[in-house]
Known about the structure:
This protein is α/β, with parallel strands linked by helices. It has a single domain (3-106), classed as Trna Endonuclease, Chain: A, domain 1 (3-Layer(aba) Sandwich). The chain is 45% helix and 19% strand. It has four helices and five strands; from the N terminus they run βββαββααα. It has helices at 29-42, 57-66, 74-86, 95-106, and strands at 3-9, 12-18, 20-21, 46-47, 50-51. Strand 1 (3-9) and strand 2 form a beta hairpin. The mean pLDDT is 80.
Amino acid sequence: MDAVAALNDPTGSRVFAIPAKCSKKAVPVNTVRALAGVMHDKGAGYGIPVTTSWFGKAGYDFAHRNGRLRLIDGRNLKALHQCTVRSAGSSSDSAGSVLLTLVRNSSR
């Protein structure tokens, strides 16, 4: 696991497991499935696999059926980076809120 993040808000605390992959090929569905197992083992409520490449249809289908996985591909990662750079001087938007927006919108 490359990162573990916790979000504490009025509705409770949530733990996110975040593996990151730098690749030039599609991330195999087995990688997405393995994350579901790690989430169960570690008690993480959500998994956010991040890649510089893309996920195949089987990966998106599995994530959709699981309901607790949000896939961030290279396109979304680039958008996250651009939003973070733009908001670096702004106190009204944080990288964390940008990430959560991408997480909510990345599920297909």
